[in-house]
Specification:
332 residues; Dihydrodipicolinate Reductase, domain 2; six-stranded parallel beta sheet; 9 helices; 34% helix
Length: 332
């Protein structure tokens, strides 16, 4: 029996042991701080292609062990769940292997580098229902997103008609995998996927035309602007690697608007602004320090058989992948 931790809602759960494939920056910046904040999971081991790099990463992050290979990590019966922050082109192979090993899996977005890769992964997930799979869109689990859903359900801005959503940051490392076509890079894959997923959460699947313009370099889209029809409603998105940080989203309704400073990775400093009937109300619904925390608490509760799984990849990943594929095709 493993040690006890807290799920964050007063319910004790057994400590969930995680294995991490790769020493990506997002593991250091987001996943591991969120894991520590849950109090109900620990990073048991990491596996990297370069064992020395893995040891440096493990020492810096307080990870117990460095596995000799990805295969060895997946075969270790002590590992309950696997986090996969590898380059996009490697997601399919290692997600399928982790599922076949019976592990719960949190795979970084996009789940597949292409639509066909996503279809392959989802087929594997359906063959292993005992091993739940999540795509690492963590915002649907957060208090901020739940508050937005409540506001929309209560008619705070009338009928939601349009989602305007941006995700930009300055990428100044020419060797970054996100600039590699072979590794499944591109702005749409890396950050444009967030507005797409947000629109699917709020407007439902894409229904209608998709338009896009952008800039491509060495086969990779580095900036993109798109319009995606959701029936009579629409998403307007902008994403890229050539601007300063911008994660604002606006939800426009028949009776007002909601603006979020960061719809995807909010901190307690981020705000929701509700503007309607000449009034403006500003709220700070985020309580967790790290954006991954709420999602990880839920995964831990699922592994401990205390909650039914929500937001599984089999429920949402293909829909998002189809829209991203249509946007990429429109750029060509």
């Amino acid at each position: 029996m493993t040690a006890q931790g807290s799920a964050g809602a007063g319910t004790p759960v057994r400590t969930v042991n995680w294995g991490i494939l790769g020493a990506a920056r997002i593991a250091h910046r987001s996943f591991l701080p969120g894991l520590r904040e849950t109090g109900s999971g620990r990073a048991l081991m990491v596996a990297t292609r370069d064992r020395e790099r893995g040891q440096v990463f493990a020492d810096a992050e307080g990870i117990d062990e460095v596995a000799p290979s990805y295969e060895a990590l997946l075969a270790d019966q002590r590992v309950d769940a696997v986090y996969i922050p590898l380059p996009n082109s490697l997601h399919a192979e290692w997600t399928e292997r982790a599922l076949a090993a019976g592990k719960a899996v949190l795979c970084e977005k996009p789940l597949g580098a292409t639509l066909s890769a996503t279809e392959t992964i989802i087929a594997a997930a359906e063959q292993h229902p005992e091993a739940p799979l999540w795509e690492a869109f963590v915002f649907p689990f957060q208090d901020q997103h739940l508050r937005v859903l409540q506001l929309l359900a209560d008619g705070a801005i009338g009928e939601l008609r349009e989602v305007q959503s941006d995700f930009h940051f300055l990428l100044d490392n020419a060797s970054d995998f996100r600039l590699s076509e072979a590794l499944g890079g591109g702005a749409l894959a890396d950050v444009g996927c967030y507005p797409v997923r947000l629109a699917h959460e709020l407007l439902g699947p894409t229904r209608g035309a998709v338009y896009a313009i952008g800039d491509r370099q060495a086969g990779v889209d580095v900036e993109a602007v798109g319009i995606v029809a959701h029936g009579e409603r629409r998403l307007l998105l902008s994403c890229g690697f050539h601007r300063g940080d911008d994660t604002r989203s606006r939800l426009l309704g028949s009776a007002g608007a909601i603006e979020l400073t960061n719809a995807f990775h909010p901190t307690p400093a981020d705000t929701i602004t509700i503007a309607t009937d000449g009034r403006t109300v500003i709220e700070h619904p985020t309580t967790d320090t790290n954006s991954f925390t709420a999602a990880l608490r839920h995964i831990h509760a699922v592994v401990a058989e205390q909650e039914a799984p929500r937001q599984l990849a089999v429920e949402s990943a293909l829909s998002t992948a189809r829209t991203l594929d249509a946007l990429r095709r429109a750029l060509r």
